[in-house]
Structures are given as structure tokens and as C-alpha cells.
Amino acid sequence: MKEIDESVADRHRRKMENRKAVQDAEVASKTIEKGLLIVNTGPGKGKSTAAFGLALRMLGHGRTVAVVQFIKGAWDTGERVALEAFGDRVLWHTMGEGFTWDTQDLKRDVAAAERAWEKAKEMMALPDVGLLILDELNIALRYDYLDLETVLADLGARRDDLHVIVTGRNAKPALIEAADMVTEMTLVKHHFKAGVKAQAGIEF
Questions:
Q1: Can you tell me the distance from the alpha carbon of 166 to that of 70, in angstroms, rounded to the nearest whole number?
Q2: pTM of the prediction?
Q3: I want to staple 113 with a disulfide (CB 3.0 to 4.6 A). Which of 46, 64, 140, 143 is the partner?
């Protein structure tokens, strides 16, 4: 074990005591409890992955989680298989028909997004759902498949204790403004650029 001088250890202890006092006071000052609107956006990988991590946390507290996927088609993904092992505590709805460059059909894409939004509203109305993940909703909004003002109004009208996570690149400024928390994933380096294909357990 590294030897530490007693004077250094004492300074560290006093510093941490002061830091703890400040931190404790900061935590104690937060008294509001509410359902959060969370947005995961940006060009980096991990937006949906982070949302599914929160799904596990919510399930760990005994709550029900709902997922509505707006763009992704019926892929067999590891997260879906894992979360559906929780049985009826996970309500999973894949409503997309694949990426826009796959369908190449605007009317079909708009219709799919509208069906997905109706399902999202249905999930928001369920009193047992503690967390609703709206996966790739930002993509549907980016391409104007859905009316942004309608989406914001419906999200704003949800019950007070429901947490909602919206994922996808290019989040609309109005959605960012309405959100309680926004995280932007920054792309620093991606193996895809080096010719590495999508792999099970990493991309899906």
C-alpha cells in the first residue's frame, strides 16, 4: 500500500469534510418530486442504450416500463429480449417499419409514426407505468412525421409522476426547451468508420 504522509491525509480529510457539508446542503435544498421529461440526443452512440439502462433502474424499484419504438423495425435486439424477461412489467411496442431509407415511402412512414404516437398516448394513460421510453421519436419529429406542437401538448398533459425519455438525433429546440434534462451524446470515435459491422450485444 502506498504510504501517505499524515499531514497530507489530514488536509484531505478536512477538504472532504467541507465538500460533504456543501454537497449535503445542496441535496437537502432539492425538494421537488415530479415526472421528468428527459431527452437523449446528439450524434454519438448510446442514446437508446442509456434509456434502457434507466428502464432497468425503474424495474429494480418495482415499477412498470413501457417502450414505444418509432423508427426501428422488428429487429431482434438484446435489450428487448432481456427486458421482456420481466414479463408484464415491460410493455414493448415496436411501431416503426425500418429506417426512412429502407421504406422510401413518406405516406407509409407518416402513418406508422401516427400509429406509434397513438400507442404512446395509450401508454401514458396507464397508471402503473412509471417510465415511458419513446425511442427515436426525435427522428419522427425531425422529418415532420408528427406535429411537434401536438406532441409537446400531449407530453405536457401527462400525469405528474410519469417519467418520459425521448431518444434520437437532432432533437427539436422546442422539445429541448420543454425537457427537464437533456443529454447530448458526442461522437468522438466510432468503429463503423473503420469498417466494423454492427454486432450483437453492441449495436443490437
A1: 10
A2: 0.89
A3: 140
